[in-house]
Amino acid sequence: MRSAKDFFRPLAVGAPAPLREVPFRPSRMIHFFDPGNAKMAAKVPALAPTVDVLLGNLEDAVPTDRKEAARAGLVAVARAHDLGGTQLWTRVNSLDSPWALDDLVTLVTEIGDRLDVVMVPKVEGPQDIHYVDRLLAQLEARAGLDRPVLVHAILETAAGVANVEAIAGASPRMQGISLGPADLAASRRMKTTRVGGGHPGYLVREDPPPTSGGGTPGDMPRVTYQQDLWHYTIARMVDACAAHGILPYYGPFGDIQDVTACEDQFRNAFLLGCVGAWTLHPVQIDIAKRVFSPAPQDVAWAERVIEAMGDGTGAVMIDGKMQDDATYKQCRVVAELAAALAARDPELAASYAAARKAAL
Ligand code: GLV
Ligand code: MG
In this protein, which residues make up the domain named HpcH/HpaI aldolase/citrate lyase (predicted)? Predict the structure, then answer.
C-alpha cells in the first residue's frame, strides 16, 4: 500500500520534489538522431531550432558495438550546445538490456540538468516505471538537480497495452506515452513487416449486390475500405493518458518516402487526441508541424465560439450550428493548444492572426 500523501514526496533524500502537473511544452515532433554518428551530431545546432524536441537515441537502430559511443556522443552534444527552447530527450536501452543502467547513471550524472525527458522502451507494466522512478530520484539527489527528469513510456509490448492505465498513473514523473507500432506488432505476433501505418490486407468489403441474374457474389466487383490497424491501441492510449493528465503521441512512421500516408497516420492520431509524433527523417518534420498545429481556420472558429459563449454555459447558434458547454470545452482545447504553440512558433502565430482577421 502506498499512501496518497506519499505520491508527491521525493523517492530519495535530496531529490527534487515531483511535479504535480505535466508542464505543457510544444512537442509536435520528437526528432530522433543517433548521437554516436559524428555527421548527425554535427547537424544538431542547425536542427534544434526547427523541431520541438530533439531525442538522442541509444536503443534500437544503434548497433550493439556502438552503444557506448552513442551514450558518450549524447553527453558531448548536450554539453556543447545550448538548444534554446528546444527540449532534449533521450531513449535509453530497454530495462532488460546490459546498457540501461549505465545509460541512466551516466546521463543523469553528466547531463541531468540538460535532459528534459527519458523515454523508456518496451515498458510492460507499472513495475518498470517504479524501478526507473526510484533510480532517477537517487541519481538526481547525487547530481544535485533542482528539477525532476520526466519519464515517457513506449507502448510496444502486448503486456504494456494490457497495463497501459497503470503505466500512465505509475508516477508523477510520467510525462507521456508513445505508440511503438513496430515492436508492438512483433510482440502481438501481428503479421505485418513494417514500422507503423496501415496494411492493404486489413480491410472491410461492401456487401455483394443481390444475385438475380446469375453469377456468384465472389465474381462481383465490390468496394473495399482499408482499416486502421492502430485505432484500438491509440484510442486506449489516449484515454489512459488523458485520465492521468499526461500526453499521448504517435510513434514512428517508417516509410520515409510515403509522405502522404505518414501525414494521414499523424492526422488520425492528432484528431484522436495525440499531441505529436516521432520524426525519423527531416522530411517528416514539416508534416508533424503542419498536422499537430491546429489549422488557422479551426482556431479562428474556436475563438469565435468561445467569445460567443461568454461564461461557457447555455447554448447559442453560430452559422446554423448549435454550440453549448461541450462544444465550448472542445473549442478551448483547440484555442489553448494554438496559443501554446504560437508562443513558440512566430510563423504559426502570424497565420493564426491572419485567420482571426479574416473571420471578423
Ligand atoms: C518503436 O520503437 C517501435 O517499435 O515502433
Ligand atoms: Mg521499438
Answer: 32-194
> In this predicted model, what pLDDT tens digit does every residue of 197-212 receive, in sequence order?
999 999 999 988 877 6
- Pocket flag, ligand 1, residue 251 (CB < 6 Å): yes
State the CATH number of the domain containing residue 30: 3.20.20.60
The mean pLDDT of the chain is 95
Residues 302 and 344 in one domain: yes
C-alpha distance from residue 335 to each of 94, 305, 342 (Å): 37, 10, 10
Tens digits of residue pLDDT in 83-130 = 999 999 999 999 999 999 999 999 999 999 999 999 999 999 999 999
On whether the CB atoms of residues 49 and 76 are closer than 8 A, the answer is no
Dihedrals phi, psi of 309, to nearest 5 degrees: -85, -5
Asked if residue 154 has its Cβ within 6 Å of ligand 1, the reply is: yes
Tell me, yes or no, if the pTM score tops 0.90. Answer: yes
The per-residue pLDDT for range 124-147, each reduced to its tens digit, is 999 999 999 999 999 999 999 999
Helices (H), the chain: 38-42, 44-47, 67-80, 100-111, 126-143, 158-162, 164-168, 181-188, 231-244, 259-272, 283-291, 296-309, 325-342, 346-359
Q: Residue 314 burial (CB < 10 Å; 0-12/13-18/19+)?
A: exposed
Give the residue, out of 58, 62, 124, 184, with the most ligand 1 atoms within 8 A of its beta carbon, to mutate for a pocket test. Answer: 184
Q: Which amino acid is at 222?
A: R
Mean predicted confidence (pLDDT) in 44-62: 97
**Contact, 200 vs 226, CB < 8 A?**
yes
Please check whether residues 270 and 353 belong to one and the same domain.
no
Q: At what angle do helices 325-342 and 346-359 cross, to 10 degrees?
A: 140
Report every protein residue that has its C-beta within 5 angstroms of ion ligand 2: 156, 180, 183
In total, how many domains does the chain have?
Answer: 2
Q: Find the domain containing 46 and state its range.
A: 4-200+225-292
CA distance 341 to 158: 34
Closest CA to 285 of 34, 37, 53, 42: 53
